[in-house]
Design a protein that fits this description.
single chain; 109 residues; mainly alpha
């Protein structure tokens, strides 16, 4: 509950990475949802090709990690602010998507 309250208070702050790289803020929410989005889309694409659940999760996790690290490398070379905290939020989003995907599996009767 406290984390949710802190997050809500931080959402009204100015810009991305204001005065440093905090653990909470608008930028971190974006990273969380982008990690979840990439994980979900990559998983769905793999399943559409006929891959098993396990293979699809593993491949989606690799793709999400590559996209996340690539974004931070881009930030480092384009004047942005690379951040391990951003990567942490990307991973949390991917993890949350994986939990949802695990619970959405259909089991045969």
């Amino acid at each position: 509950m406290r984390v949710a309250l802190l997050l809500m208070l931080q959402l009204h702050g100015p810009g991305d990475h204001p005065g440093g790289d905090s653990w909470f803020g608008v930028d971190k929410v974006k990273h969380f949802f982008m990690g979840a989005f990439v994980q979900s889309v990559a998983y769905s694409a793999m399943r559409a090709t006929g891959s098993s659940h396990g293979t699809s999760i593993a491949t989606a996790s690799g793709i999400t990690a590559a996209v996340s690290v690539g974004k931070e490398v881009w930030d480092a070379h384009s004047g942005g602010t690379p951040s391990l905290r951003d990567l942490s939020w990307d991973a949390l989003g991917a993890g949350a998507a994986t939990v949802v995907l695990q619970h959405s599996l259909r089991t045969p009767n």
